[in-house]
């Protein structure tokens, strides 16, 4: 098993046949869509002057319900969908005006990793959704980190794609009153740890450096002094001797730093270069 939605769906159908269970489709079902549409009603009840709503999209059940409810009550409100770039089944289908199935999906947003949209949901997305865009795993990681830091909210990848679309200007919302629907918090702790590291790198809050040095006393101290002078905080240091591709007297210094932003990263890089150090990375 590849561990994506489609595998679980096929297994559920097997169990239905084998044990006589009643199968309820998780997204391509009118009642499920109607239930999720109540979120659209809640949004309008709480924020009647909203300009746009951004919704995660996997199979399309959530956005079908939300878009139908919102567009039925106020067609002027924009409804945007967001998929992970590694699982763009609905965006491909809508762009080509026919249901398309992906051979494989690859994304940290496993909750929306769906190879093929539903028939009902495809039709509703074509009719009621203004635009569907995609976000990368790096952008999703940054959104998860932002939600943790600024909102004290743990979101899974599938839940954070809406925030990622807003953060990285995937939809035209500048100056508008916007709701990002964050649809889930089911994230594994080890994945969360990796996502935080990725999010820090993506936002310039972490900097990875490899410095090629001459293997003699004082080199490490010289690098450390420059980083310290420019306000970088060293998190880890790995000092390794020469390999087959370098000078016999050479060595490599691998550093991970805590930084403030991309400008701060560039400041530290430039200071090392100006001091005559050779940066491999």
Q: If you had to describe this structure to a student in words, what would you say it looks like?
A:
With about 280 residues, this protein is an alpha/beta fold. About 45% of the residues lie in helices and about 15% in strands. It contains ten helices and eight strands. It has helices at about 5-20, 30-45, 60-75, 90-95, 120-130, 135-150, 155-165, 190-200, 220-230, 260-275, and strands at about 50-55, 80-85, 130-135, 180, 205-215, 235-240, 250-260, 280. The strands form two sheets. It has a four-stranded parallel sheet with strand order 3-2-1-4, with helices on both faces. The protein has a four-stranded antiparallel sheet with strand order 6-7-5-8. Strand 6 (about 235-240) and strand 7 (about 250-260) form a beta hairpin. The longest helix has 17 residues, at about 30-45. It is elongated, with a radius of gyration of 24 Å. The two termini are about 40 Å apart.
List the helices and strands and how they pair.
Layout: H1 5-19, H2 30-46, E1 52-56, H3 61-73, E2 78-84, H4 89-96, H5 119-128, E3 131-135, H6 137-151, H7 157-167, E4 178-180, H8 189-202, E5 206-214, H9 219-229, E6 233-241, E7 250-258, H10 262-274, E8 278-279
Parallel strand pairs: 1-2, 1-4, 2-3
Antiparallel strand pairs: 5-7, 5-8, 6-7
Short description:
Helices cover 45% and strands 17% of the residues.
List keywords for this structure.
four-stranded antiparallel β-sheet, alpha/beta, 281 residues, elongated, four-stranded parallel β-sheet
């Amino acid at each position: 098993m590849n561990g994506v939605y489609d595998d679980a769906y096929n297994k559920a159908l097997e169990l239905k046949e084998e044990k006589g269970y009643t199968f309820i489709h998780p997204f391509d079902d009118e009642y499920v869509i109607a239930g999720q549409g109540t979120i659209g009603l809640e949004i309008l009840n709480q924020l009647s002057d909203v300009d746009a709503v951004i919704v995660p999209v996997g199979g399309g059940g959530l956005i079908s319900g939300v878009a139908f409810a919102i567009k039925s009550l106020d067609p002027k409100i924009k409804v945007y969908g967001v998929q992970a770039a590694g699982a763009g089944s609905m965006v491909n289908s809508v762009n080509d005006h026919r249901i398309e199935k992906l051979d494989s999906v690859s994304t940290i947003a496993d909750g929306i990793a769906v190879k093929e949209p539903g028939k009902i949901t495809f039709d509703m997305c074509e009719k009621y959704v203004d635009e569907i865009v995609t976000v990368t795993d790096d952008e999703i990681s940054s959104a998860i980190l932002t939600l943790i830091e600024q909102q004290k909210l743990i979101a899974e990848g599938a839940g954070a794609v809406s925030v990622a679309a807003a953060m990285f200007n995937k939809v035209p919302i500048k100056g508008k009153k916007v709701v990002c629907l964050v649809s889930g918090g089911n994230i594994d702790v080890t994945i969360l740890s990796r996502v935080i590291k990725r999010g820090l790198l993506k936002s310039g809050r972490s900097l990875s450096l490899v410095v090629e040095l001459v293997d003699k006393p004082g080199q490490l101290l010289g690098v450390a002094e420059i980083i310290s002078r420019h306000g970088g905080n060293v998190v880890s240091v790995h000092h390794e001797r020469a390999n087959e591709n370098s000078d016999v007297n050479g060595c490599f210094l691998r550093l991970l730093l805590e930084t403030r932003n991309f400008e701060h990263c560039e400041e530290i890089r430039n200071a090392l270069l100006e001091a005559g150090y050779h940066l491999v990375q």
